[in-house]
Amino acid sequence: MSQPSLLTLSAALLLAGCGSLAPTYERPAAPVPTQLPLAAAEAASASAAPAAPLAWQDFVRHPAPRRLVELALANNRDLRVAALNVERARAQLDVSLADRYPTIGVGVAANSAPNTQSGNQAQSYTAGLQMASWELDFLGRIGNLNDAARSQLLATEAGRRSAELALVGAVLSSYLNLVADAQLLGVAERTLASREATFKLTRIKSDAGAASKLEEQSAVTLLAQARVARQQALRQRSQDLATLALLLGGPVPDDAVPQPPVLDPAGDTSAPAPDDAGADAAWAALLAEVPVGLSSEVLLRRPDVVQAEQQLQAANANIGAARAAMFPRITLTASAGQASSQFSGLFQGGNFAWTLGAQALMTLFDAGRNQANVNASKVGRDIAVAQYERAVQAAFKDTADALNGLATWRDQRQAQADQLASAREIARLTELRYGAGAASELERLDAQRSLYAAEQALVQTRLAEQQNRVGLWKALGG
After folding, report:
1. Pairwise CA distance, residues 468 & 283, whole Å
2. Which of 38, 161, 174, 431 has the maximum number of C-beta atoms within 10 A of its C-beta?
3. What architecture is domain 12-106+137-327+382-475?
4. pTM, to two decimals
5. Distance CA 301, CA 54 (A)
6. Is 359 in a helix, a strand, or coil?
7. Percent helix / strand / coil, the chain, rounded to 5
8. Are 227 and 192 in contact (CB under 8 A)?
9. 3-class DSSP state for residue 17?
10. Is the distance from CB of 437 to CB of 258 less than 8 angstroms?
11. What angle, 0 to 180 degrees and rounded to 10, lies between the N-to-C axes of helices 77-98 and 63-75?
């Protein structure tokens, strides 16, 4: 090969992969307010900078739900599929990166062609290394495809983290449901025991003529209602256990399931009644407070937002690859090895030969296929922008809902506790008036129903408050 040819080849190799026709990537402006909608009390103490992320190990304080989360992370099938998707995306990136380098093989070839001078068949045999069609990436087509594959890998990894975040939140929600189930079951069993005693006493009084049939039937009604409520609580607890088992990918450990009476975080078996002040502290001690700042930039670290942005970058890189396809492609072919006109002399010394070829191919007419690919890639980029903005807006909405719930659920819980205290006092006074003959059986029945409903409502409100805390942790990206 002559010196000019060598210089030309060297220049081509140096320029390979140096260009790119992809648009310069710029992160779209977030279509949400710059500050999170904090209440006045929280905003006064919040930092202007985004709050530091809170790992689930720091968020979950109680050892029982922490153990359940660890089991779910190890055995959940959906999370396992998400992890395998990451491995597949990594392999696809390796395939894309391999296109930057030549593919070299080894082979033996035999050719027979007519000799135009003698009219006889001319035989040729070659054996050695061969490089077939290595593309010189002048305009960055292969480089852009590499960038797109790399962004897809990062998007898949963000998807795995999003699945992990959702799984942790689901396990915690299921555990909180079981805590509420245990407390509701305790309320139902305590109410059932009380109404069984009342029914026995009323029947004795009825048999002695000291109570009417109406009073006896009222006691039967209250007892039946308590039995129905107990069965409902048992059924709900079984369903929540099945949901948790699905999340864990296996059976739920018995020692991790809350039982009536519910153990508090310290392990005290003398659990507080649903109306005791200690119950609020027991609920609050399950999970840590979630740090919140003023800046909405914290939402950009959410895995689903990161996933949407990486998919946008992949779509942006695909535009460059589609544009480069409209220009000539330059490819090299080469071979080096032994060559002979006779097979017996193929591997003898002095028969070494090599070839090097270059080809530039440009499409003149393709019925608009390349331009259509460019247009499609631009539309794909616009779709990815809209999906990214939608992900940011959804993240802001989730966070705003959870932040609004911080104060409202706390105030509702306090109001519900006051309502329960009032219902308990009304039930006590009505029972006294009923015993003295100053209150009717209907009043007594209504007071008992109101008391039981208030006890259930307080447990449900405490549950909703803690579920909101889990939702805030998820909304901020963990």
Report:
1. 13
2. 174
3. Up-down Bundle (1.20)
4. 0.83
5. 12
6. strand
7. 65, 10, 25
8. yes
9. coil
10. no
11. 50
- DSSP secondary structure, 106-119, as one string: EEEEEEEEE-TTT-
Judged on CB neighbours under 10 Å (0-12, 13-18, 19+), 300 is: middle
Asked if 334 contacts 357 with a C-beta cutoff of 8 angstroms, the reply is yes
Q: How many CA atoms lie within 13 A of 327 on its CB side?
A: 16
**Residue 23 token pair:** 């648009």
CB pairs under 8 A, 24+ apart, for 49-55? 49/293, 49/295, 50/293, 50/295, 50/297, 50/298, 50/301, 51/291, 51/292, 51/293, 51/298, 51/476, 52/291, 53/301, 53/476, 53/477, 53/478, 54/288, 54/290, 54/291, 54/473, 54/476, 54/478, 55/478
Q: What is the mean pLDDT of each run of 10 residues along the chain (478 residues)?
A: 44 52 91 80 61 87 94 94 96 93 86 69 80 86 94 96 96 96 90 85 80 80 90 95 94 88 38 56 86 83 95 96 90 85 70 84 86 94 96 94 90 93 92 83 84 92 95 91
User: Is 321 within 8 Å of 148 (Cβ atoms)?
Assistant: yes
Polymer length in residues for the chain: 478
Longest dimension (CA), the chain: 136
Nearest CA among 327, 351, 349, 331 for reference residue 340: 351
The span from the CA of 127 to the CA of 336, in Å, is: 8
